[in-house]
Amino acid sequence: MYASLRPLLFSLDAERAHDLTLAGLGAVHRLGLSSMLATPPQPLPTEAFGLRFANPVGLAAGLDKNGDHIDALFALGFGFVEIGTVTPRAQDGNPRPRMFRLPRHRAVINRLGFNNRGVDALVANVERARRPGVLGINIGKNKDTPNESAADDYLFCLERVYPLADYITVNISSPNTAGLRELQEEQALRRLIGTLREAQERLAAQHGKRVPVLVKVAPDLNDDDIEAAARVLSDLHVDGVIATNTTISRISVQDDPRAGEAGGLSGEPVMNKSTTVLRMLRTRLPGSIPLVGVGGILSGADAVKKMAAGASLVQVYSGLVYRGPPLIGDCVDAIRRRREAPSRGNLPSL
């Protein structure tokens, strides 16, 4: 069904198509017709950071910033759904137009800028949802909050979403909020994550449950940055790391007329870059810290590459723009085949 709708959606402004798609998805779900969009995959149970997932393929943050469509998204077959990024106060984000497709490269550039209705609106939506699977909530800071006070914004969101989230992601890697990525610098990262880890333990005692806190990093970190980030995240015993967010690099799309648009590039061009960061983190972090691979997944084979690089789970977003909901089942099936394949040592001799 998505294949027939894609030409219409691609004739519209990218953000308008995004909003229309979500509205349509909600309507289809309310009518009980989600199976028309995709056949949910058979379960492929997966465990990571103390949680059990129906399958290892999830939705990355950014598609449903306010949690308006949680149940409709789960109905497509995701093993987990991550909503947000949400900030303490509502904000409009950057001026439009701020989302662009690069069809020849199967890519998207966005500079949305954490547009959302604020954490209280998201909490209300989560409270109304049935949420039949693992729900992650991605938190950030308001654009007018200086980095010196960023911890206050993250703490505010952490405390508000903690009772409702299955896991929480700290987004310090979006390129669309000025100065945000500076929080990935070693000392700034240690201060922020250290503060949030202390709050996490306090909230665990307060609510009688421990909600995992993950950190989402950028694909544009150099080798020294990755070494430093791994050192901090390991020292502070974070529950998991998501690798990666969008890239500011345009090397792989420099021939595209949209390449000059500011913002984060996602989709196929970020696949190799994000997978390299994923692989480097896996070799530098203890095995007790699971990784989530995201960036450039447009096929089951791409999902398998992320798993081979060290991911326990994967997430998709821009791939849905080009492949639609069938991408979910494609990824689950490919990962299933990888799991079921005999190891090389067990292959019959010829």
CATH architecture tag: Alpha-Beta Barrel
Query: If you average the pLDDT, what whole number results?
Result: 96
Measured as a percent range, the helix fraction is 25-40%
What structural class do helix, strand and pairing data support?
alpha/beta
* Oligomeric organization of the protein chains: single chain
How many strand segments? 13
Enumerate the strands of the largest sheet in spatial order, edge to edge or round the barrel: 3-4-7-8-9-10-12-13
The termini sit apart by 45 Å
Main pleated sheet: 8 strands, parallel, barrel
Low-confidence stretches: 344-350
Topology diagram in text:
Layout: H1 2-10, H2 14-30, E1 46-48, E2 51-53, E3 57-59, H3 70-74, E4 80-86, E5 99-102, E6 107-110, H4 119-128, E7 134-139, H5 150-161, E8 167-171, H6 186-207, E9 213-217, H7 223-235, E10 240-243, E11 264-267, H8 271-284, E12 291-294, H9 300-308, E13 313-316, H10 318-323, H11 326-340
